[in-house]
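FAQ: What does a multi-protein file look like?

Like this. Sequence, then tokens, then the next protein.
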Amino acid sequence: MTPTLVRNLRDADSSALAEAGTRARDWAEIQERMLAPLYEAVYDRLEVGAATRMLSLGCGSGLAMLVAAARGAQVTGVDSDRERLALARERLLPNEGTEGAESAPAHRARLHDTGLPPAVGADGAPYDLITVFEPIGCAAGDTEGLVPALRAAVPLAVRGATVVLTGWGPPERCATAPVLRVAARLTESARPPRPGGWRPTLRDDLEDVAARAGLKPDGSGRVSCPFGYADPDSAVRGLLSTGLFDAAVRATDRSQVEKEVAEALHPYLRPDGTVWMPNVFRYLICTT
């Protein structure tokens, strides 16, 4: 899948960046699509299609679900971020609440913002695929809530169901890693240092989560996911929408974080003004 540069967002009102809804839209419009090659690679390997009943944990604004639904899969998504989930509803259930109206994927998708999803998929059959497409391995403590969520979700799936975990690749294979180190430096500079900052990805991050959740690894892969942006402003907005800089913002202030991230992007600025950062992401296929 050919990476696409996102449209120029220079003229957006910078004063709205702090609003949760704007941040969620930055994620949906700028950043989320950078992971589309990861979604496609996993779905191709698992032959996701009409027979698939997928439960997406941390489904965000729903792009991965939309891709699966386009392949014919029945999809159910759960996320605690209600702003992102609202955008997922716009994508997957655009006519929800409209009397007599049906959208193409609406009968294949359900979304939940609290608690556990139903014990069966949208068509009444148990789940046979559980996905976690929010990459782990770049923030301290980013698996604390994931392991309990997996333990709660596994009983909702058929015996021997497939579980997919995803994470950042080795720092030396990710051009974004030096930019993310800005978050670590600013977080550690606070007195006292703030928790939750960036940390280097470890080789066995995904395997560690699988072991703690009682899953059996059954294959893995790496996928190239370049981050391409129309300009540095779009890059800053997209990167801050990931949440990886939240601790740095709390430790200093947003304007300082934006300034230092923009400076860290200089090596990846191309002559035409675009920003291009090659990255590699990992996925681990497990069985319950």
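And here is the next protein:
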Amino acid sequence: MSNDETTPGPRASRRAAKPRKRRRGLKITLGVLLVLLLATGGTLYWLYSQLDGNIKGVDINKALGEDRPEKLPTSGQNLLVLGSDSRAGAENRELGGGGSVGGARSDTAMVVHIPEGRSKAVAVSIPRDTLVTRPECVKDDGSTVAGKERVMFNSVYAQVGPACVVKTVEKMSGVRVDHYLEINFAGFKDLVDAIGGVTVDVPQDIDDKASGLSLTAGPQKLNGTESLAYVRTRHGIGDGSDLGRIGLQQQFLMALLSEVKSQDLLGSPTNSYKIAKSATQSLTTDSGLASLTSLAEFARSMNGVDPASMETIMLPVAYDKIDPNRVIASEPQSGQLWKAIREDTTIPEEAKKSPATGG
């Protein structure tokens, strides 16, 4: 598993709260949040035009060519959203726990499906410890990397790059990925700090000695560094696996969106600009979204999507029989889930149940 150490300052709560019973899976990344933020800004997107240079673009279509799933006319829109644990830059290295960890991995990942009509959305999180078959891919330098079975999902990014992550997801799901969004450690932290922190109701005491995160159950307002530790903690909750923290990530996303919604972005262009600047500095997208104008136009097309109604599902997985520290996609549940997304139909309830829960 990848290094999850961070160095937040300790926080203590004065009140206790009952643990939350419902924990649906979600790998939180702030790329989706940025889209929602820009949608909230609506007519103010023109303020951000000077920030275009902050966004890095990846030409996914050129890298993947024609060997991709068919785009069905009624399949809606599908976004692959990644949170990268890149150690590039001093701030990312510090937030990643320092040390000599090189490269980057897709620390968090989810496929966001927006059905035709864009009145709702479904987010499917892919546990980073999932063993997958990596297809043959072409790197940025033009060299070819042979396909390989039983590789950890989060290693694909480090070994071959974002285009290969898209190709891996498309091969395992049969779902055509329309857009790609990625944000790194520093972008997550800075965005939370830009909105003034996020209040979460910590479901149980957390004492993660690996990261230094210490929280008692109850409402707590977390800054950017603490928030990053909260959504990445493994040792402080559940069985210590990647699956155990997914409930925290889903809870944090809802709290974050609620905080954004409560702020008057339309009435505060300065605050809107500050938030957009902090996000775009650490944002990478596919070339089709690699400008504030394109991103804002896409966001406005999602105005009918209510974040509160977004359904969050963890890809159904089972513990691997050879290596119990890894998981594999569980059948027939995962196949049913991807089929429903491909065909833009209702997801069967049995397709939302994961044999491995991380509890």
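Q: Is there any per-entry metadata?
A: Some entries carry free-text notes. For the entry above: The longest helix spans residues 246-262.
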